[in-house]
Specification:
Helix content: 40-55%
CATH superfamily of the largest domain: Glycogen Phosphorylase B
Strand content: 5-15%
Distance between the termini: 96 Å
CATH architecture of the largest domain: 3-Layer(aba) Sandwich
Low-confidence stretches: 169-173
Largest sheet: 6 strands, parallel
CATH topology of the largest domain: Rossmann fold
Radius of gyration: 36 Å
Structural class: alpha/beta
Oligomer: single chain
Number of domains: 4
Strand order of the largest sheet: 7-6-8-9-10-11
Mean pLDDT: 91
CATH class of the largest domain: Alpha Beta
Length: 714
Amino acid sequence: MIDVLLIAGTVPQPAVLKASLDKFREAGATVRLAGLFDIADIDADGLDLAGLHSLPEAGAAHGEKFLKGTEKGSALSRTWKFVQRDRWVRSRARRADVLVALDQPAVYTVWRLSQRNRRADAVFGIVPALKAVADRRERPGHYALRGVYRSLPSPVVAARTVTRTARRGANGVYRKATSPRVLRTSVGAKAWRAIVSAPRVPDTPRAELAHRVSHSMSKGGRKAGASIVLNSAAARIADGALRAELLAEAARKDIARGHDDPKARAQAIKALLALADQRFANHDAKQAAHALSSALTLAFHRALHFDDLSSPLSSDTDGYMAPFRASKAFAALSAPRGRELPAAAGLPADRPLRLLVTTYSNANFLKPIMDRYADHPGVEIRFLDLKADDELRPLAKGGQRMMEYLLGGQRGFGNKVEDALRPHLDWADTVFVDWATNAAALFTLVDPGTTRIVVRLHSYEAWTFWPHLVDRSRIDDLVFVGDHLRDLAVDILPDLGEPGGPELHVIANAMDLERYQLPKAEADARFTLGLVGVSAVAKDPRWALDVLRELRRHDSRYRMVIVGDGLDPKASAAARRYDDLLREDLEELEAEGAVELYGRTEDVPGALTGIGVILSSSVRESFHCALVEGAVSGALPVVRDWPFFAGKENGARTLYPADWIVTTPTEAAERILEWTGSEERWREATAGAAKLSLSTWDWSVVSVEFDKLFLHED
């Protein structure tokens, strides 16, 4: 049935009304009538009305004051005043298919009602109304598509009432109108974008409504629109905090869906830093830290630096860090606080050196170091995993609390850190903190006294915000596993290269390489390529598969073994997108018998006995232990010129021999074909690579560098 609502500003003529209703009935319409009349004025017998409603009689429930207020003005304004307060009319008007003004005084009211029900036809007079009913009967499909917008108001009405709506939490009609069901449609999304950016809406309700609409758009599958609506609202907001919040949320949503917008992200970071500076100037350390934390977590989002094949930080370090370096709050966060006393020089004269080795959870690279100094007569060693310590774990996880403390707040937090770390600092002569993350930040929150602080930065940390929370003025020695990482760290943290900064060292990872010297399972191993460790997008295993394809064009005996866990597609949309493409590649090559997924194993030396060529296909690495382990095992090393560092002063080309390095899959295939064409040439090349690796990077060699570092031995 087609619902028709008639509005009358005067008493309708009985004969005209009856004739009109007969025609509506014949057309299959259900009709209701409301107007400025008393029920007694209408002879309802035989009219077949679905509803008859008197505005004055219903308005009496609002009291004498309301009725007196309606007496002023024209019939046109009186009609609307009654309807505004009349739930019966407004409820039926929202459900009506056709809104009809029976006379001139009702025209304005019908127009206003049509703004709240834009799927209805709004007409003046019986003839246009009958035409609208007839058209609906002839084209039901067309009008059915408009049904989803039953509760959707026009931008004009929404802009007029959005303040009240948002403050009430978008209840009632707006809760339905902003539902995912409505906002997944193009018309609904477009309408609400216009509503959220409508003029003359106060900042707070605009922001609240923008959040709601954006959330519903996301749930409705319009993820791009969810960001657009936040940015549109932010453009209309003067309040710095609300604007920064909306821009940041929009940027995070973009990143979450795998479509980072560098300009929008930069705008959000700039707004957050401006807010942090304002709050810092007002001595509001807590809120300044909140804004600064938002800016840092957005700038160092893992999807930007870990789940893609490039990073804006490494491609333009100065440009990327420029907004932070211009921020007063960030400058205060990174300001050197120094130490009252320098670290004690030399070794203790009357006892062994007390060495505290510490980290937060990740001790993967510490075992050879721990074993060496556990048996050293000149060293007394202790190990502290902050994550395993019930007192230190919650303190180390407080990144934003650390920021607040560094900005002048959270004195209680600082006292807790002091109390928890002081016994360790008082015992140790030297503290070796592995990974420049939260453990390093926590240890440098307090004055270490005369205890020497040594921190090792691998690679991961450089693309996080943690090094910016580490007080470099309280570090005596900073260790890197490669010259290229040292260069990057100095670019990111220029104070590292200034006088008074920590002493910088480059020492390779501790690796027991001799255990990888096992005979190859068979001579044909030279046709098997190995890729060990593919749990990160940065490993770029698809590049390695391109190498395999190039080789198989020449000789179908070439195949690849992939050792280790696969990617985590849940890490981010960017990681999921790469993983989808990788799976397609693997399915193609597995069908040909060209790829074997070996999986995770504790016996990597055993797995390498079947591998004759070891690949480093990564876009970035700190050192790439798996490559060197493969080389020692007798596999031919083939190293991609890691793109993150290619063309810079240091990189894969300066870390490894020049003849190991290639730039393209074609060059990699050429190197492999050249040296695996015969067993003799393959064994010749791999023997030289194994000898070089052992003499350069085995723990027996590298341990001497740690003795120099800890024990000052020449």
